[in-house]
Design a protein that fits this description.
The complex is a heterodimer of chains A (265) and B (303). Chain A is α/β, with parallel strands linked by helices and 265 residues long. Helix content of chain A is 22%, strand content 34%. Chain A has 2 domains: 92 residues, Elongation Factor Tu (Ef-tu), domain 3 (Beta Barrel); 155 residues, 3-Layer(aba) Sandwich (Rossmann fold), CATH 3.40.50.80. In chain A, helix 6 links the parallel strand 12 and strand 13. By secondary structure, chain B is an alpha/beta fold. Chain B is globular. Classes of the chains: A alpha/beta (265), B alpha/beta (303).
């Protein structure tokens, strides 16, 4: 883990509100594991004040990528940065997916909802180079919300897409698309990231069918490295359950650890 | 060579920059980023006698140049602190200050009594001012009598000098500060966070699960500075300035107003190197202005 105040933006792409930045940050790139994240300072001024967390989307040599959706002030400011700008980042942070123990497992399923696809590409890279080809499920509200479809296809992965409005692929939630495919698939391991209701639904299916599943959680974060105790999730522990820091003990937790909220607020 | 040390009488700090409680974890979280030995000291996260679960999320909301938190003082308790954390802190040549919490006066005394037996702690800072403990933000710091009572009890038990950390959520902070001094506090630190809230307009709900939280960050700096200025005028014990300090310039404002030292809080989240950069900024200011001793700046406001 280190602070790199001079991560150079070497490449930028965008599709509507989704952005992909390539950042040159050799040490962070060399240490990063799938599921880990970085904290990005979006402005050198005091507003917005806090850094923003982003999953590491891919690693190629000395470069890392982040993939994000413009959704607030922080991400809007970030989206205005251009190739050649420096970014002040801290990383790699947190504990990632337990992918290495599954490198020989076939029938691994990755499920991403919207911007939640971000960490799963890096995971697919690692799994692929370890000799296993994961199956990808990728859902969004409309066809504009699944811009990375081709990126996975180019890798030769089987990919199932869903859109809420039916503008591409399965009409409906990616959860239902996944359940539908379970008649053809026998997943040995699930890795997922997306909106909490999506992850909760997948967790329920996974537990019912006895499939191990891991989820990368999203949270507002103060610092990203365990100092503020602002980003907690209820996690089952030996003592029962407690509020555990997502940034330090997560962001990846298994379906057996996470206590999902009973009802959406 | 510029002398950055500040002498409190009961302790000499190598420089006037401390890290504030609740924003610096237990200190060790920052060791990957900075050399903790460079700090004047740091105040570890508030400790109750027993572990505390803290509040449900959402615990943080960002507001313009500010941060509202309602962590609820989640923590590991004194025993785990003494067993797991303190041994790691003893190697550092800097002032280690423990922020002491309590739901009752007796709990404050129990925490201090327990920690008295442990080596490696320089000072206690009594947290009579955390606004999150009970709904409505009630705390001993809001009343001169209860401030006196807690400080007096802790001073009776304590084997170490005591700083009292004051809340800004009061009508007259000078009155409370005088109460702490009268009860025997060796110094005061101010301010803790301002009681605050934020509302989600679409949902018409409070953004924080706890409804209310404490505002920190650059947004509160002018308010904190005003309170430090007022308190310094009336006290004869050292005052430590806290509130939205992000830069050396910010720290110097508090020192000029009369604070003997400062605590850096929210800035640590934004930049984990903030404390060290602030020390460097202060040093540069002294160099540029031919100031050889930082103490020569303290309380030099031209009115």
């Amino acid at each position: 883990m280190l602070k790199d105040p001079h991560a150079l933006i070497t490449h930028k792409e965008h599709w509507k509100d989704y952005y992909l930045f390539t950042l040159e940050s050799p040490i962070i790139a060399s240490q990063a594991e799938p599921g880990q994240f970085i904290m990005v300072r979006v402005s050198s001024l005091s507003c917005p004040l806090l850094r923003r967390p982003f999953s590491i989307h891919s690693v190629e040599g000395k470069n890392i990528e982040i993939f994000f959706q413009k959704s607030g002030i922080g991400t809007s400011l970030l989206s205005n940065k251009i190739t050649g700008d420096f970014m002040d980042i801290i990383g790699p942070l947190g504990k990632g997916f337990s992918w290495s123990q599954h490198s020989k497992t076939q029938d691994i399923v990755l499920i991403g909802g919207g911007r939640g696809i971000a960490p799963l590409y890096f995971l697919s890279q690692k799994l692929h180079s370890a000799g296993t080809t994961p199956i990808i499920f990728y859902g969004g509200k409309t066809k504009d919300d699944i811009p990375l479809k081709e990126k996975f296809e180019q890798k030769g992965f089987t990919i199932y897409c869903s859109t809420d409005d039916g503008s591409f692929g399965f009409r409906g939630l990616i959860t239902d698309c996944f359940k539908d495919q379970l008649k053809n698939l026998t997943p040995k391991q699930i890795f997922a990231c997306g909106p909490e209701p999506m992850m909760k639904a997948i967790s329920q299916v996974a537990v019912k069918r006895g499939i191990p599943a891991e989820f990368s959680l999203e949270s507002v974060m103060g610092c990203g490295f365990g100092a503020c105790w602002g980003c907690v999730k209820k996690i089952k522990t030996k003592a029962g359950s407690e509020w555990v820091k997502i940034c330090e003990e997560g962001p990846v937790f298994s379906s057996f650890e996470i206590v999902w909220e009973e009802q959406e607020k | 060579m510029i002398d950055l040390s500040v002498d409190f009488g009961f302790i000499k700090l190598k420089n006037p920059v401390l890290a504030a409680s609740g924003t610096f974890g237990y200190g060790i979280e920052f060791s990957p980023f900075i050399d903790l030995n460079k700090l004047g000291g740091f105040v570890v996260k508030g400790l109750y006698y027993s572990p505390r679960p803290g509040n449900p999320p959402q615990r943080l909301v960002e507001t313009p140049s500010g941060l509202i938190n309602a962590i609820g003082l989640q923590g590991i308790g004194v025993k785990k602190f003494a067993e797991d954390i303190l041994p790691q802190l003893r190697k550092y040549q800097t002032a280690i200050i423990v922020n002491v919490c309590g739901e009752t006066e007796e709990e404050y005394a129990k925490v201090v009594d327990f920690l008295n037996k442990e080596d490696g702690i320089s000072l206690y800072e009594i947290n009579i001012s955390c606004p999150n403990v009970k709904e409505g933000g009630c705390c001993p710091a809001q009343n001169p009598e209860s401030t006196y009572s807690v400080v007096h009890l802790v001073k009776e038990v304590s084997a170490r000098p005591v700083i009292t950390k004051l809340s800004p959520n009061v009508t007259d902070i000078v009155e409370i500060a005088l109460s702490a001094q009268e009860a025997g506090s060796d110094a005061v630190s101010l301010v803790n966070t301002f009681l605050a809230m934020a509302i989600d307009v679409e949902e018409r709900r409070p953004k924080l699960a706890n409804i209310l939280g404490g505002l920190s960050g650059p947004a509160i700096k002018p308010l904190a500075l005003r309170m430090v200025y007022q308190v310094v005028k009336h006290l004869n014990i050292p005052v430590i300035g806290i509130g939205g300090i992000m830069t050396g310039q910010d720290a110097l404002e508090f020192l000029i107003a009369g604070a003997k030292a400062v605590q850096v809080g929210t800035a640590n989240f934004v930049d984990p190197e903030a404390t060290v950069k602030i020390i460097q900024d202060i040093q540069r200011h002294c160099q540029f202005n031919n100031i050889t001793k930082i103490e020569d700046i303290i309380g030099t406001l031209n009115e």
